[in-house]
Model the fold of this input.
Amino acid sequence: MFLHLFKYRFLSFVREKSMIFWILVFPIILGTCFYLAFGKINEKSENFTSIPVAIVMETKEDGTAFQDFMSSLKTKEDTPFFKVTYTTRKKGEKLLKDKKVDGLILYKDGTPHLTITESGYNATIIKTVLERYIQSAEVVISAYKKNPAKVPGILETLSEGVEIKENKLTSGNPDNILEYFYALIAMASLFSSLTGRTLAWQAKANKSAIGMRKTCGATHRLTVLLADFCASLFVHAISSALLVTYLLFVLKINLGVSFLATLAISLSGAVIGLCVGLIIGSVPGLSEGTQIGLNVGFSLFSSFLSGLMMGDMKRFIEASCPLINHINPATLISNALYSLNIYDNYDRFLINIFTMLGLSVILIITSYFMTRRETYDSL
Amino acid sequence: MTVFKTFFKVARAYIRPAIIYTCIFLGITLLINKSYKNEDSSYENARLDLAIFDNDHSDLSEHLSSYLEEKHNLVTLSYDKDAFRDAIYQRTCEYVLIIPKGYEKGDATLESYKLPGSIYSSLLENNIDQYLSLYKSYLSMGLKPDSAHQKALDTIDKTVDVKLQSAKQTNTNNPEHRFFSYFTYAIISVIISALTPILIRFHNGDLKMRSLCSGISTFRRSLSLTLGSAIFTMIILSVYLIIGGLLFPDWLNKTTFMARLCNTFTYSMVCLAATFLISTLTSNLTVVDMVSNVVGLTSSFLCGVFVPAEYLSKSVIQMGQFLPCYWYMNVERAISQNSYHMSFHLTNGILVQWLFFIALMAMGLLAAKKERF
Done:
């Protein structure tokens, strides 16, 4: 009987073409949109690129030392620190005003003067480098006055540079943009709550004709619910598989987690979503529109708190109310994926998974008790 | 007028979901706004969040630690690689510096945990390099460690003269601007989610059949529905503007008040037209919510709402121009910058949005007219 019910529930899902279309297509559209929006973001925000500066030389003395200093500075990756444009004061001010350069350096009488339009990391770097120049010059002059013989040694110390050994943080992918994709996978999983609501709606005799037929039928309510639940989970498994395949193999995003692990975590989230939908659908006295509103509110708000729209939201919640991060299903899904990616051991992953399983058990039991043994005075 | 009055009778039945959606999306907008840090416009050196572990406990390491503590924000972490990973990945700490035992004697080198290629770590390493080169130089001149440290600090205090000049206003990180930016996501999601079920009632079932049997033409019926929907939309818009006015009363007094009002009104009308079209294409309420999410999130990500426009690639910006949200954001940015080009951006952006409204309404009316049994 279970298989019979499973088969026909699955067929009824498949025949609702608009629903199936959106369940399958919706996460893919969003995944593509994220990929397009975040494609270049790290290149433009975090990765170091040469800072454009304009230099105006208004000095009677020889400024070659300063010019050599500015053009010789490079990072460890051999990227020049600055993209230097030598120009006049008027043109330089225009470049600065039009934000074509991040700083205007006026080298006058052996001293550089800096003009900027906003504080920030680039302005700080330019200021730091210029101060380096001034400070190095002071040390050399001080050494020359005290003991000229020490000057070559000091020049060598000043130009030596400090060696800092960089330790690898993780063997996974540390790109923080992945948080958005994890939140997307979480949202796609939690959208199963809409299906859960439909199951509850169709199980209630006072809400739908099919609910009446099911209530009158001889099959045990638990068998019916279980079959419907499994069929819905199966449909969402296909949807999740499609989304993960699309992200991993078409968009070629390195989620840092294997396909099967991502699918398993996504399915755990789908179970939670289905149970929440069942609970919302079982609450008496709510209209269909209100139930759908609550469902959407749950999945969207949960995803929002896990960082779907704003990457820093999880950190903000952690600072203000950390309990939310420990029980929010979307955050649990996102953290499970993150811990598999970043950590070498499974401790944090297991904590997240067990919390999700615990939440699922509580929700399944609650939804079962809410849907069983309903009696009606009249229909 | 019958259809118009019936619209509000039907809307009354859907008032609870409308309130739920408005509260949810308003809540999201306000939470995002609250979680942002306001940037101070005055110039100052950027301070980084840094963790230091001094295992050497020598004069050099202690002096270096105290210098870095002054320049940056010290973060307390446990001496555990997992804690470092968490903190750096979540950006609560941008750099972890470990001074190993034997560093002063030259038996070991400094170690770090950081994000590869990050601009923040380059800045910090420059600070470390700057201090150590001065400290070692003064030591080699024959000074004692404490004196060398003090002399190094005095030399580091020699700053370059910095002038802060006003440029093109880029005051786009103020809370007002953020509120009106996230408004686009909220308003389109609420209007599609709350209004579509009401319109679907008119496009399906008994209500539709009775309307078709009546003497009212399809055009008049659609016009009445549009008018009713417009009033419904204005009520939702008013809620947002009132909340915006209560949170940020300054924007009510600014010269840009009318421009913002015009921009938000126009965009709401575009959302209404999109909703009208969607209501003719589907009758499944579950699908409506998915559509609202797709439309809302896609336009927000591609048009510079959730991801600032300066970080988007050119192709994405070009794609975004096909969405009305892009033109709304153009006008909103111009208003926020108070740019002298504002009148051009304002006219251009508002006109394009009205064109979107006309196009979407025309498609919706055509789809409504083509419904046949």
User: Anything to note?
Assistant: Strands of chain A lie at 51-58, 82-86, 103-108, 111-116, 164-166. Chain A touches chain B through 104 residues (CB under 8 Å).
